[in-house]
TrEMBL record:
<feature type="binding site">
    <location>
        <position position="248"/>
    </location>
    <ligand>
        <name>L-aspartate</name>
    </ligand>
</feature>
<dbReference type="GO" id="GO:0006520">
    <property type="term" value="P:amino acid metabolic process"/>
</dbReference>
<protein>
    <recommendedName>
        <fullName>Aspartate carbamoyltransferase</fullName>
        <ecNumber>2.1.3.2</ecNumber>
    </recommendedName>
</protein>
<dbReference type="InterPro" id="IPR006132">
    <property type="entry name" value="Asp/Orn_carbamoyltranf_P-bd"/>
</dbReference>
<dbReference type="InterPro" id="IPR006130">
    <property type="entry name" value="Asp/Orn_carbamoylTrfase"/>
</dbReference>
<keyword id="KW-0808">Transferase</keyword>
<comment type="pathway">
    <text>Pyrimidine metabolism; UMP biosynthesis via de novo pathway; (S)-dihydroorotate from bicarbonate: step 2/3.</text>
</comment>
<feature type="binding site">
    <location>
        <position position="187"/>
    </location>
    <ligand>
        <name>L-aspartate</name>
    </ligand>
</feature>
<dbReference type="Pfam" id="PF00185">
    <property type="entry name" value="OTCace"/>
</dbReference>
<feature type="binding site">
    <location>
        <position position="287"/>
    </location>
    <ligand>
        <name>carbamoyl phosphate</name>
    </ligand>
</feature>
<dbReference type="GO" id="GO:0004070">
    <property type="term" value="F:aspartate carbamoyltransferase activity"/>
</dbReference>
<feature type="binding site">
    <location>
        <position position="103"/>
    </location>
    <ligand>
        <name>L-aspartate</name>
    </ligand>
</feature>
<feature type="binding site">
    <location>
        <position position="288"/>
    </location>
    <ligand>
        <name>carbamoyl phosphate</name>
    </ligand>
</feature>
<keyword id="KW-0665">Pyrimidine biosynthesis</keyword>
<dbReference type="GO" id="GO:0016597">
    <property type="term" value="F:amino acid binding"/>
</dbReference>
<dbReference type="InterPro" id="IPR006131">
    <property type="entry name" value="Asp_carbamoyltransf_Asp/Orn-bd"/>
</dbReference>
<feature type="domain" description="Aspartate/ornithine carbamoyltransferase Asp/Orn-binding">
    <location>
        <begin position="173"/>
        <end position="322"/>
    </location>
</feature>
Length: 327
């Protein structure tokens, strides 16, 4: 990405957030509360624009490289839709086996290639730290769309935007947030727990013993003096929960398939279980789900997971506009 001195004059007057121009988005650790307020303000505007006009030309002439080494439905398609709704276009590499990666090309060389043709790169890759390696190789901004079991920062931003929009922006402080399921391999909960340390929240982690939240994430949360407690059953914490964040057990990350079979289906959220929860709370899930939320619950007003993925479009529109100097 360009240094401060290399940044060209920006065409939007006295915008005070021009510092986002050319920046990489690699980890939630790079955000402050003020940054979140700004990003969510832009995302809120994007929502209004999509509802009013659908598509507009803010990023006309800009091209996104969408490089996915792992499967994705939501992240890949929402980044593509975000760029297209902003009037830009997309080079999509969703099946790296059909690219020169299958001939042995390294990640840095693939990134250097794509930035010859495009203005911003979105990367999903199975290895922790891959987005940072890509950013090191690139002059153009790199957005981390998930690096193995590491982070998924744009997901955490859309998760928090969902909480802001559904429960009220001023109401995050004081919330009890319960994360349920595969907390070991779920990069979305790693990023969200870290991001929530910017607020005065209480975190509960409910998981099978072998899928507990990693120690490094818990140490970071603890260093910010955020209370966090581990449980093995949901019933203990459901009545006090304001946000129930459900995750899929990530079969593809298990070394031993027998271990997966032991914990698959450990938790299922359904209308019966949810009788014990508050009426004023929300249930979230990064999706895809594979049975951990019963479809019978989808029509409950507390089910926020489909709205959550819609909000991903607005947050990703905001991020693309920001790093390309147009927000
Ligand atoms: N939430 C999420 O990352 O979904 P996809 O894997 O479909 O992108």
């Amino acid at each position: 990405m360009p240094t401060e001195s290399q940044s060209p004059h920006l065409p939007f007057g006295d915008n005070t957030h021009a510092e986002w121009y050319g920046k990489d988005i690699l980890s939630v650790k790079q955000f402050s509360r003020a940054d979140l307020e700004y990003i969510f303000g832009v995302a809120h505007e994007m929502r209004g624009m999509v509802e009013r006009v659908g598509t507009f030309d803010l990023l006309k002439g800009k091209i996104l490289a969408n490089l996915f080494y792992e499967p994705s439905t939501r992240t890949a398609s929402s980044f593509m839709a975000a760029m297209q709704r902003l009037g830009g276009s997309v080079v999509a590499i969703n099946e790296v086996k059909y690219s020169s990666v299958s001939k042995g090309e390294s990640l840095p060389d693939t990134i250097r290639t794509l930035e010859c043709y495009t203005d911003v790169i979105v990367l999903r890759h199975p290895e922790v730290g891959s987005a940072a390696i890509a950013a090191e190789a690139a002059e153009k901004p790199v957005l981390n769309a998930g690096d193995g079991v590491g982070e998924h920062p744009t997901q955490a931003l859309l998760d928090l935007f969902t909480i802001f929009e559904e429960l009220g922006a001023g109401k995050v402080d004081g919330l009890t947030i319960t994360m349920l399921g595969d907390l070991k391999y779920g990069r979305t909960v790693h990023s969200l727990a870290r991001l929530l340390t910017l607020f005065d929240v209480k975190l509960n982690y409910v998981s099978p013993e072998i899928l507990r939240m990693p120690k490094d994430v818990m140490d970071e949360v603890s260093a910010k003096n955020i209370p966090q407690t581990e449980y093995t059953t949901l019933e203990e914490v459901l009545p006090e929960t304001d946000v129930l964040y459900v995750t899929r057990v990530q079969k593809e990350r298990f070394e031993n398939p027998a271990d997966y079979e032991k914990v698959a289906g450990s938790f299922v959220v359904n209308p019966e279980i949810m009788k014990a929860a508050k009426q004023e709370m929300i249930v979230m899930h990064p999706l895809p789900r594979v049975g951990e939320i019963s479809p019978d619950f989808d029509t409950d007003p507390r089910a926020a997971y489909f709205l959550q993925m819609e909000y991903g479009l607005y947050v990703r529109m905001a991020l693309l506009a920001m790093v390309l100097g147009k927000a």
